[in-house]
């Protein structure tokens, strides 16, 4: 196996005698230390990531920022959108210049600098130096406070500017640059450690990689989110910042056992050159250069009078075939990212165990259930089910020839995420009915009073469980599909594109929130309570997302069937070509 590696590939010394050993009992034999270092670094990085995103809505919605509910929900959506949109750049940087290892290391440094912003803006003294004094609330005309009708078109309801907005978004932007670049490289870098052990090793690595992601999420949500809501956002932001620093050190020290490859050119550069030539260049007319009738991309091949080797053009054609699958996943990601935005906003308006109804009781040492803890239902479910899937279910299905393809698993994930949005919409409908019939109760969270329905937060559990089940199918299978369907020279690029389309899904969610906040629609346009959503129609937004996902699921089934048929056809053609040669 070692003989199949590239000449410039760096391998650890502990694997140098693999040729003299018998077949290892485990696919990870000799690679456990390298995989462990990557998985530990990723778990710590996820603690940092969820330390920022899990309570960001509460942080910005509360004192002294008081961003409106829509504004506070848009911030993490935009942050996650930038995070994923930047991923292709991270893949290009690794492939063209730095290699995966040094790209990840440099990105972690940038990530750490961005993390430092949040302990500073959560401290009163440093925040005032960075952002200035807290702004006063604008006086609202009487028409804007009317709960029974929307204000007339000639009445303007002033909106309070986002206090500390430039500093918050600067920190989020630096973190997004770091996270996006790490994301596009650490997954294929980890898979590189076991790629010569076959597809079984790659599949199992992705299972455990995703398990460690959710382990970090649980540790962050279980500890950091609790500290942020009930003790101090400053301490709650220092802890994930320290975890990220440790993650960087673990990754740096792991260099001695990692399999690393130098940068060997960007697939993106070749891809754009080939696409540009195929679309814009004049095609040759000489009949001796033409075999059959070339497709648009085939015309870029040397054999058809183009300038590019056949292998490079075939890689771009493989990428083009994958793109429809990525497009079809956009609505899935739009719903998925609601888990850390509008689902949290909804939870802040449900009765939370241990929450106080008096601001004077805040200093007492009483347990208050953090709203962000419901996100743990998703993560705990994944922690429990992935080992079961990896050790029991998948081997049984594989022996019987029933293991579904990655595309079929993605479709199942889409089905479950659609029902998560439906469950959220049904709950929000019931919550608004209770508010209108029984009124609200005051609930203090993070020194802010929320006017909530007398309905326990546990009613949100089904929507989180459904989104967790969907993640086991769609997210893991999506990573596996992106890595396995990519030509070897384009694995970082295609992994970057996979996350890029995730970012588009996040921006779609933010854009839809902005649209339904328009006065003409009015689903999220209540400005009088600066964050409470009792005069909004969030349930319409959830049902809209579910409808979009349902339509997309039908389209995806058509796309996936067509892709699988093309894959089978291409495999049979390769087999015939091999046997004839």
How would you sum up this structure, described in words?
There is one protein chain. This protein has 581 residues and is mostly helical. The chain is 63% helix and 3% strand. The chain contains 17 helices and 3 strands. It has helices at 32-53, 56-61, 69-85, 87-121, 124-131, 165-192, 199-230, 233-253, 267-280, 310-328, 330-336, 342-347, 375-399, 406-438, 461-485, 491-516, 538-580, and strands at 350-351, 441-445, 448-456. A 3-stranded mixed β-sheet has the order 1-3-2. The longest helix is centred in the last third of the chain and has 43 residues, at 538-580. 48% of the residues are buried. The model is unreliable at 1-5, 13-21 and 359-366 (pLDDT under 50).
Question: What is the compact description of this entry?
Answer:
Helix content is 63%, strand content 3%. With 581 residues, the protein is mostly helical. It is globular.
Average pLDDT rating:
80
Rg calculated over all Cα atoms: 26 Å
Strands of the widest sheet, in order across it, are 1-3-2
Overall geometric form: globular
Order of helices and strands: HHHHHHHHHHHHEHHEEHHH
The separation of the N and C termini measures 25 Å
Helical content, roughly?
A: 55-70%
- Tally of helical runs: 17
Q: Helix- and strand-based class?
A: mainly alpha
Q: How much strand?
A: under 5%
Number of strands: 3
Sheet having the most strands? 3 strands, mixed
Poorly predicted regions: 1-5, 13-21, 359-366
